Amino acid sequence: MTTNQFVPTPVTIAEQILQLSKSNFDASNPQDDLLVLYNAKIRMQELCDSLLQTVLGRLEYTVLLAESCQESSALGFVTALTVPDIIGDETATVAELSKASGADARFLSIAMSCLLKHNYFEEVGGFGTQVYKNNHLSDILREGHSESVKDAVGFMYAIFYKHNSPVDHDTNSCDEGFKATSYLLEASKPSPNEEPRLPAVNLAFGFDKTVFEWMSDQEWRGRRMGKAMQQLHRMANGNVVADYAWNQLVSPVVDIGGGIGSLELALLKEEQNKALKFTIFDIPKTIENAKKTWTTQPETAASRVSFAPGNFLAPTLDETCIPRGQPTYLIRHVLHDWTDDQVVSILRNVREAMLAIPGPDPNVKLVVCEMLLRDTSSRFVRTTSMQLLALNNGVTRTEVEMVKLVEKSGFRVNRVHHMRAVDSIIEAIPES
Ligand SMILES: C[S@@+](CC[C@H](N)C(=O)[O-])C[C@H]1O[C@@H](n2cnc3c(N)ncnc32)[C@H](O)[C@@H]1O
C-alpha cells in the first residue's frame, strides 16, 4: 500500500534543525523565554527522529526502533550489575568488572559496546581495549549522584535474576516495567470469563492485588518505586515546582494518593513554600513507607506534613477515610491509573469529603496534576504511557477527556495551567 504523503527531504529537515538550534540553543544568543525553550527541545526531538527516518529509510528505521529494546536492555543490565558504581572515578577492565559483578565478561563487553555507541562510558585507549571509564552520561547511572536515574532505570527494565527471586534487591534485581510490557498482548485480550482484565504487570508477576499494594507489600519495591518516581519527575517535571504558584494554595493541602510525598519533598525545599502544610492520604502500607521517608527529613519540613491512611475507592465516604472539609485537595499522577468510571468514583469521593462539613470553605479547590496527551507531546510522554498501561491499565488522557471526567464528577473547571513539564494542572471547584 502506498500513500501520497509529502515526505520532507533530509536537507529541508536539517535546515529546520539548524534554524531551531540558532534561535534557541546558541550559547552566544541564549533563548530567554523558558517556555519557548522547553517546546523547542520537544520539537528538536521530533526533527532529529524525522531526519533519521528520511536518511535511513523506513525499513532500517523500523528495525532500529524494534531493536531499541536491546539498547534498553543493555542500559538496565549494566545498571543492575552496578557497573557505573564499580568503575567509580577510576578505570576498570572487563575482567575486573566481571569479577566484581559476578557476570560473564562476554555479556558485559557486548552490553558495554551497545552503550558506548550511545556515548555512555568511554573506552580508554580506543576501540576494543575493553577498559572502561565513566563519563558525564554513565555518571547518572551511579548511586548517590545528584542527578541519578539508577532506580528509574531499574524500575523500567527487566532482569530475571535467579528466577526473579528478590536477592540483594538494591543492587541486582530490576523488573516491573519491561517485564510487564512484554505481557501487553495478553492483557489486551478480553478475559475468557468476562471478569475485568488484569493489567500486564499482574500477568507478568502472577498476582491479583493492585500493583500499588503489591509494591508496598515488598518494601524494597515500594522504596525503589518511590525513588524512581522522584528521579523521573526531576527529569520530566522538575519545573512544576517553579511553574505553578504552590504558595498560593490554602493549607492544609490534602494530597490524595500522595505516595511517599515526593511532591512535598520537592516543594518544601523551596523557601516560598515553607508555610504550606500537607496531609498525605494513601493506602495504609504506603503511608507506613511515607512516614519512614519523612523521619529522615529536616524537622522544618517534616513538621509540615501529616498522614492519613485510607482507600479512595471505598464505597462510602466513611470507609474512604479521606480527610473532610479541608481547603485544598491535590491529586497528582493518580487518575491516569484508573478507568473512566473509577476516576469518577475517586473524584466523587473527594468532592463528598470537600463538602462534608457544613458551611464549607467557599474557596475550596481541587488541583489535579496529570500528564496530558497533546499533539506535541514528546516521546517521553508516549513511552511513559506504555509503562502506565502495562503497570495498571493506566491511560494518559487528553485535556478534553480529563476535563470532561472532572466535570462529570461534579466539579467546575476554572483553569488549565500549562508548564515547562509533561504535567499540566487543572484547577476546579466543587459544584454544590
Ligand atoms: C503513581 S502513584 C502517585 C503518587 C504521588 N501522587 C506522586 O505524584 O508522587 C499513585 C498513588 O496512588 C495510591 N493509591 C492507589 N490506590 C489507592 C487507593 N485505593 N486509595 C488511596 N491511594 C491509592 C498508590 O499507593 C500510589 O501512592
UniProtKB/TrEMBL annotation:
Keywords of this entry: Methyltransferase, S-adenosyl-L-methionine, Transferase
O-methyltransferase C-terminal domain residues: 204-412
MF terms in GO: O-methyltransferase activity
InterPro entries for this protein: COMT-like, COMT_C, SAM-dependent_MTases_sf, WH-like_DNA-bd_sf, WH_DNA-bd_sf
Annotated SUPFAM superfamilies: S-adenosyl-L-methionine-dependent methyltransferases, Winged helix' DNA-binding domain
Keyword Methyltransferase found: yes
Recorded superkingdom: Eukaryota
Protein name: O-methyltransferase C-terminal domain-containing protein
The organism of origin for this protein: Tricholomella constricta
